[in-house]
Amino acid sequence: MLTVMPAGAAPSHSDGSRNRVIFVHGFAPTGKHDCAKYFSSARKHFKNKNWKGNLLTFGYYKGDKNCSYRYKNGTRNKSLNTVAKVFANYVADNYSSKNEKVDVVAHSMGGLIVRAALYHSSKGTPGFPKKLYIEDVVTLGTPHGGTKAGYACSGIFAQCKEMKPRSAFLKSLGTAMPKSNRRTGWTTDWTTVSSYNDGVVSEASGIAGIAKHEVQYQAGIGHNELKTVHTGRHKSRIKHPNWSAWSKRVSPVEQARLSVLLSSM
């Protein structure tokens, strides 16, 4: 007999490489990114590892190009909550409304956008969708605890101000990743990745906010390398649920792939 899924039923959680993965870039000092170039190393690595789902990109500046989706009115002065609302509705309208799930890999400030999207969707903030089926999120060098780099441009751009340590925006998100949607019961598995060699986001800030999995790297992995280095073994450690010993482990891009591939990774 055929098993019929009830109308509107949420997708099931499962491991595998068939999910769509949406890559979300970080802050652009120039107000524009080339989405394809920004994540070229990561997306090529996923493809080479036989990832079967679509590898998409989300851009949120009007100057962005080569993005699967671009927020045409986005600027550096759009609040992160505004961008998060656009991102949440993009995912909901194209996938969650059809009961399809996605994974997300976000670099730097992009991780705050994803975090805010899931937080406000769960909370029921006006303008955010109820259903947001994001199965796995990996953040690479995201300033969950803020970044001192935000002070340099906080008087010019709203997004810099919101990235400053102890900003009102960061405080509003609470102290833990939004892993469960209180309105739908859907759960999201989080992996936060940081590096002691990141000159933009400290190793502590990159994993600030409780996540199920936390990973830290040492020398040789800087802020941009977190999204580009996909080969070799690198001194790092993982917390799941306790910190492992420092050892030679997989590259940060491979860690991201494994984290969205295996929910229990």
Automatic annotation (TrEMBL):
<dbReference type="GO" id="GO:0016787">
    <property type="term" value="F:hydrolase activity"/>
</dbReference>
<keyword id="KW-0378">Hydrolase</keyword>
<protein>
    <submittedName>
        <fullName>Alpha/beta hydrolase</fullName>
    </submittedName>
</protein>
<feature type="domain" description="DUF676">
    <location>
        <begin position="21"/>
        <end position="148"/>
    </location>
</feature>
<dbReference type="InterPro" id="IPR029058">
    <property type="entry name" value="AB_hydrolase_fold"/>
</dbReference>
<dbReference type="Pfam" id="PF05057">
    <property type="entry name" value="DUF676"/>
</dbReference>
<dbReference type="InterPro" id="IPR007751">
    <property type="entry name" value="DUF676_lipase-like"/>
</dbReference>
